[in-house]
Write a structure and sequence with these properties.
With about 100 residues, the chain is mainly β. The protein has a single domain (about 5-95), classed as Beta Barrel (Elongation Factor Tu (Ef-tu), domain 3). About 10% of the residues lie in helices and about 60% in strands. It contains one helix and six strands, in the order E-E-E-H-E-E-E. It has one helix at about 45-50, and strands at about 5, 10-25, 25-40, 55-60, 65-75, 85-95. A six-stranded antiparallel beta barrel has the order 1-2-3-6-5-4. A hairpin with a 2-residue loop joins strand 1 and strand 2 (about 10-25). It comes from Lentibacillus cibarius. This is DUF3219 family protein.
Amino acid sequence: MKQTIIINDMELIASNVRAESIMKNGQLRTKLNFDFKVTHDMYHDVTTLLYENNFIVKVPDKNLEFSAVITNYSTSITNLYEPGAVGDFKLELTEKES
């Protein structure tokens, strides 16, 4: 099922969305894993956003909103500069310590 994930006001259409609570440094934190497609046209905007590594994450379907950083990231392709190219991105975001 596709869901919208909003990271710093950028909407991504995600699949395999999994949210869970984890214990980190004695505090309960939200961890969010999801996959999304990145096209040649959106590559620059997405990678610029991810390099910030300081996010406000919203998942409207799960009624979630939290500050997060990247704890795991991978992509199926490293060159999305070619027109028509599409990459599969996997992202894990974990709630920041307050």
